[in-house]
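BUG: 3D viewer hangs when loading the predicted structure for this chain

Environment: internal workstation, default settings.
Expected: structure renders.
Actual: progress bar stalls at 90%.

Input used:
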Amino acid sequence: MSNSHTALEEASPWIRRFVSAIPKNGVVLDLACGAGRHTHFLLNAGFAVLAVDQNIDAISQEKYPSLKVARMDLEGEIWPLTGKVFSAIVVTNYLYRPYLAELPKMLTDGGVLLYETFAQGNGEFGKPSNPDFLLKTGELLSFSAQNGLKVLAYEDLYIDYPKPAMIQRLCAVKGALQGHIPLQFRA
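Structure tokens produced before the viewer hung:
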């Protein structure tokens, strides 16, 4: 990704919509960052970012003073982020339930979780179709309630762009939002 215009275009509308809820202090974790579309969007929005994934080759050469990139096995026997704390965690197109409950523990008070991934019914449209990688109806809402997160927004729906899919989206905060944060309600 070479410029902020490209990063803005490629960032999920859900992440763009709720980026203003993220506290400006601290570091944002882009979990399972892939090629870094949200990493670059967040950097261009002025955040410090830790981007982690098993394959980080697509973004490891970038030169941003507020970017740290780490190769991590997010599905190994030991959770590699134990003890780390973030002002926000962004997760898109990724689900690994064994460590899902670790995410709220890693948020600061006022920290925001932005989560968007595939949901039940997605098999009608392609991959993923394995139930292990599809959220069950209301799963992110239940997860939030079980972990003391306040839900700011939630969707469980069909989308047709960038490709037809069933997805769930969550914007939740640990504790209370820090100060008055205007949320941008645009797609």
